[in-house]
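All the exercises in this workshop are built on plain-text protein records. The record below serves as our worked example for the rest of this section.
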Amino acid sequence: MVSMARVIAILLVCGTATQAIANDNFQFSAASFVDACTRADQSWVSFCDGYIQATIDNLRPSDAVCLPDGLSRSRLVSLGEQVLSASSELRDHNAQDALRVVLRAAFPC
């Protein structure tokens, strides 16, 4: 069983990390996604895998995104990081909205 002190320590670390990459609107921006997902740290790799999975889970039919079978989360994270880092237009957008644009362009139905 995890001790209460350990849970509080984890929450404090996570809260500090989230604050460091969140913008003034308390939204996770595309620029923050790029920053987080280019860190060479397994915790951030896991975070980015989870973030892209949440983005996929929240796709709507109207998003017109058709992902091919066998596509890995790490490949999607890499695609998002590459496109968003090259796009000054999308950097200030909400990360999930920007990733939706990237996915629609890469995998249209």
In short: The chain has five helices and no strands.
